Amino acid sequence: MSHIRTSTPHDTRSSINRRILALAIPTFGQLIAEPAFILIDTAIVGHVGDSALAGLSIGSTIILTTVGLCVFLAYGTTSQVAKLIGAGRRREGLEAGIDGLWLALGIGTAVSIALFAAAEPLCWAMGAHGEVLANAVGYLRAVVFGLPGMLLVYAANGIFRGLQKARVTLTAAVAGAIANTVLDLLFVFGFGWGIVGSGVATLIAQWFMGVFLVVPAILWSRADGASVRPRLGGILRSAGDGAPLFLRTLALRVCMVATVMFAARMGEQVLAAYQAVNSSWNFVINMLDAIGIAGQALVATELGAGRRGEARRMTSAAARAGLVGGIIIGLALAAAGVLAAPLFSANPAIQQLIAIGMVTLAVFLPLGGWMWALDGILIGAGDYRYLAATCLITAAVYLPCLFGAGALDAWIDSAELLDGAPLSLDALRTITVWALINVVFIGLRAVFNGARARTDRWM
């Protein structure tokens, strides 16, 4: 039987940092799976046409929103498994993870059917019309039945993180990304299926990853004597524990959906550029989120064992790592925006907007890294109600700011106030979108998380 290493009072800062890094790197592998699929789809579909890229922005937002709303399957399971193992209750911890797998399969199946049926009105409600609407609906209906596979990935990783056996997730992510890329190129250009081919490729890659991870999760659990049969009580308990996390994520995803609708009203080029920058953002924030989740698993284990002092030391180390990671990744993102924009579109105007959006985003990324590290740790500690409440407050502030910016943009456009200005209206719109996201949406959450971490109540 394998055992989980717990910290001792003699662990040095460098030792803690190594343990965080040892979990963060493979955890990143799982986290980037869905954003990586969307990023690959974006780079390939961007060369199909502007309306296809704009349609992908709508369809992929719906998919990412749905997957994001179910992130509690990973976060909640990680916390439960780590705490129970830290308390010496290994079999119970693994059974909690298996309950999460059954819950993921049930939710994924039901949601896939609902989204397939409601694809067209959903895309229309988000601002898609004409060719953009046709592309958005085509992509969504092609990819949607991969959701159960992707949610199984999230739940299985809760088991791996809780066991601190995260390397298998990196292998799965790399294999899934390779499969998705090859199939994307084959279906989109080889078979001429266009954006629908991109959705089918992602669906296959999602199920491939799901099977790849669920099989070893079940085998390891059975080897430790855990039951793999569905237990209604355990499934309902997993759902109940995840309710505040679901509410938290719902508030955040409403903000992101509203942002896409905001970008859609600004025109096809701004929306197409937003999709490219947003796909890159979803990719890089998962590098930062991996630090938070590594800290989450370690802190939850220490809290389960009753070692609060060590939990606080790991919290500080994870927050510093998130800040430093944000600086390094931000510099790389800014460079990518300037150099790699042609990968996402052949249109020079859209390329310029992509570069502007990436640089704006990169400036604020260190703040995001610090915030996400603390966010993961508070989730690991089970501080779900505080996170749900503060995210609802954030949404209540952000949405009116977005509405106000939209009204101001319409007035400036109608009054033609920017004629002859050094930056085009579309460039200023792109800067506004990403500044609002980072200053209000990320900034408020950073304030709330920082204030909470300074107390002991979250423990």
From TrEMBL:
Reading the lineage from the top rank, the first entry is Bacteria
GO cellular component terms, semicolon-separated: plasma membrane
One GO MF term: antiporter activity
Topological type in the membrane: Multi-pass membrane protein
**Membrane-spanning residues where?**
20-40, 52-75, 96-119, 139-160, 172-195, 201-221, 317-341, 353-374, 386-407, 427-448
Q: Where in the cell is it found?
A: Membrane
* Keywords of this entry: Membrane, Transmembrane, Transmembrane helix
Q: Which InterPro entries match?
A: DinF-like, MATE_fam
- Please name the Pfam families in this protein's record: MatE
What is the similarity comment for this entry? Answer: Belongs to the multi antimicrobial extrusion (MATE) (TC 2.A.66.1) family.
Q: Which PANTHER family match?
A: PROTEIN DETOXIFICATION 44, CHLOROPLASTIC, PROTEIN DETOXIFICATION 44, CHLOROPLASTIC-RELATED
Q: What is this protein called?
A: MATE family efflux transporter
